[in-house]
Structure formats: C-alpha cells, structure tokens
Amino acid sequence: MYTSEKRKRETLTKLKDKVKTASEWRVEAQTAFNAYVRYRDRDLPCISCDATGSHEGIGGYWDCGHFYSRGARRELSFNLWNAHKQCHRCNRYLSSNPQEYRKRLIIKIGIDRVDALETYAVVRHDIKYLRRIKQIFKAKLKKRNNK
C-alpha cells in the first residue's frame, strides 16, 4: 500500500529525472558502473601492480581504473573489458600505469579483446542509453550483493 508521502517522493523523483541533463545522467551511470566493477573484482589484486589489501587504497578504497581513460576514449567508459579494479596509486598518481595495465590485461582478457578495445568505433551515448546503463549496473550490483 502506498502512502501519500511515498507517492509524493516518487512523483518528485520522476520530475527530477525529466529535467536531468545528459551530463548528470553520465555521472550517475558512471557511478553505478564503477561500483559494479569494483565489486566484480573485489577479490582480485590491482590490475596494474598486483597490490592486494586495503592498505593499497586511500582509506581502504579502490578505484575502477580504465585502460583507456574516460577522457581519451569516452565511448569506452562503460565497456567491461576496459575497466578493472585498480589501486589509487596506479590509477591516480601513475596515470593508470598503462604499460603494466596492458600486460596484465592481455593475461586477464586475452589479446583479441585488447585488440578489440584498441580498434573500438566511436559511439555517442544519449540520455536513454545512460539511464539504461545506470539501471543495469545498479541491478547487477544489487543482485550480486544479495547472494
């Protein structure tokens, strides 16, 4: 049964969603995607340096490191082959530690998939796509957390 307060919140949420910009949807989709990747790789070491343990991340946190950065190859922002758990040191201070990242990425996903990343065609992400990405990765994370 719905209460009037719950209905008001749902209505307000729908109204807010209607006025969000593509940039705001991109941020929300990226947040959901990054959380999923960190959870997916939670038992793995840093993709670039094999570091393990909470001491590697600032305050015990890990990053979702992209082989091709979101700035350089925006179309790969939501590609699961392009994103892996990474320590703060490699991701933020060593600019993803690309040489080591590539070596370990080939071992993890294979040279064919790395080649596919390197030749991936440019795609524009519209609001509908970004909403769907957010929805998919929030659901995937929720499903994995409930296991």
Walk me through this protein's architecture.
With 147 residues, the protein is mainly α. The protein has one domain. The chain contains six helices and two strands; from the N terminus they run H-H-E-E-H-H-H-H. The chain has a two-stranded antiparallel ribbon. Helix 4 packs across helix 5.
Number of domains: 1
In round numbers, the mean pLDDT is 87
- Helix percent reads 40-55%
Please, how many helices?
Answer: 6
Which class do the helix and strand fractions yield?
mainly alpha
Strand ordering within the main sheet: 1-2
Q: SSE string, helix = H, strand = E?
A: HHEEHHHH
Low-confidence stretches: none
In percent terms, what proportion of residues is strand?
A: 5-15%
Largest sheet: 2 strands, antiparallel
C-alpha end-to-end distance: 28 Å
What global shape is seen?
Answer: globular
Number of strands: 2
Query: What's the alpha carbon Rg, rounded to whole Å?
Result: 17 Å
